[in-house]
């Protein structure tokens, strides 16, 4: 059952080939066997999952079936779940049991999906390797000596290891697409505002966006149908009708113009990754697409602008963690300042502390214009580049990451080397555009991702192209040997 | 741009993060490396560019000024072990 797609599992449940309880028990059994090695989950919600599965079975018996009723899924541990531990991968929230449920999680509950547990992640979503998690790094199922990517590394690794057919993730600078690429699964970052951020613990509020991770584009479409909604509780949620993302999957892509940014195929790109991506582009040509070279001349500003804006917003967002109302609190504080400083010094990891310090520096008096304002202007230039290109082409394609998965500790001493992992994904967040990574090859057993970037609210077009690609290729069906 | 020990200590105070004196050197080195990266922004000519605050140029939406939530103080305070009579307890602030 674990090799079936969400669409196939749904069919099996409809036909009563198996029950949701049987399905849930099967995935819980896989989690119990494989998770001790992969470490993709922080919390296994066995009791509540079985209860939800029984409820789903009753709904199916009563004819109240939905596309996700009885389907087991996982949520990134950044989404608040009432009554279930929500850590955000941090010691700061190692005792936090939220009193409310995130809108995204609520949407899945209303569809009758079964939550198997919460996935591991880089602390407060700050990282590209999962090495910053307080709960230990997730291991890549394709090669357990290598990172799964991050920050949604637990979700991507869990889907790759078939611990669940789908999972939620969040993407601030590439945190869905980069781990999806490194783990050989499909992951979509929707347009900013498409998926509610309510109950999703904030990192950088002008960039954060939730999205699905699954084996196939079709499954991502099914999950996005559930995740996307207008939410009055999120002031940046966009009040625009949600299309049926499955409906257009089979549209022909003949005549589609696909832009290839010259800057994404430059010297920093691993030659074998380039070969795999160019092979995938030839597949799109086989499907009738036309490739057009484009320029994104300000793309070199993306990483510098991001590492001003994201830390600045993070330094403000994370000021709420003060040891007073919830979460970690240091022992025996001598005064209020000691309570704040020691709580935050003891409970935030090194990378989170570094980003708060950078953000505080960039926002401090005398530096605001030179850093934050300048970065917001650079962001405008980056968005203009995309707008100009998307007038000429329907979609933009290129590599998701400059290289395949790397070994643990290999970038540990140099934060900038780690930041450059997201060189091809960050610009999409700065512009607020939707982007997706789908598997398009293997290099020495390590997966490679093809990135597709669309115009605002054109997730349907991205998913359509990804689905057509997956109809004529088999990369999304290849299973890591260690978990078959 | 260089950051002195005093600069790092000041940033730590502003950020309300206690850092060990022994780690200031390594923190400084890594912050420098990040600041070298972000200083590449200086190469961009942004003299005629408006800063971008929102990808869709949306403005902050405000809700109607009405009661939408009930009182959940007890529920929220159940998350803390340091409350008394509906108040959060912190070390003494006023001598």
Description:
The complex is a heterodimer of chains A (484) and B (95). With 484 residues, chain A is of the alpha/beta class. Chain A has a single domain, classed as Amidase signature (AS) domain (Amidase signature (AS) enzymes), CATH 3.90.1300. Helix content of chain A is 38%, strand content 13%. Chain A is built from 15 helices and 11 strands. In chain A, the strands form 2 sheets. An 8-stranded mixed beta sheet of chain A has the order 4-6-5-10-11-9-7-8. Chain A has a 3-stranded mixed beta sheet with strand order 1-3-2, sandwiched between helices. Chain A is globular. Chain A starts with 5 loop residues before the first helix and ends in a 12-residue tail after the last helix. Chain B is mainly alpha-helical and 95 residues long. Chain B has a domain at 5-42. Chain B is 33% helix and 4% strand. Chain B has 3 helices and 2 strands; from the N terminus they run H-H-H-E-E. At the A-B interface, helix 9, helix 10, helix 11, helix 12 and helix 13 of A face helix 1, helix 2 and helix 3 of B.
Short synopsis of the structure:
Chain A is of the alpha/beta class and 484 residues long.
How much helical structure, as a percent, in the residues of chain B? 25-40%
pLDDT averaged over residues of chain A = 97
Could you say how many structural domains of chain A there are in total? 1
Structural class of chain A: alpha/beta
Q: Would you tell me the structural class of the helices and strands of chain B? A: mainly alpha
Specify the oligomeric state: heterodimer
Low-confidence stretches of chain A: none
Strand order of the largest sheet of chain A: 4-6-5-10-11-9-7-8
What global shape of chain A is seen? globular
Shape of chain B: flat
Strand content of chain B: under 5%
What is the CATH architecture descriptor of chain A? Alpha-Beta Complex
Whole-number average pLDDT of chain B? 91
Strand content of chain A: 5-15%
What is the CATH C level class of chain A, in words?
Answer: Alpha Beta
Count of strand segments of chain B:
2
Measured distance between first and last alpha carbons of chain A: 12 Å
Rg of chain B (CA only): 22 Å
The ordered H/E elements of chain B are: HHHEE
Uncertain residue ranges of chain B: none
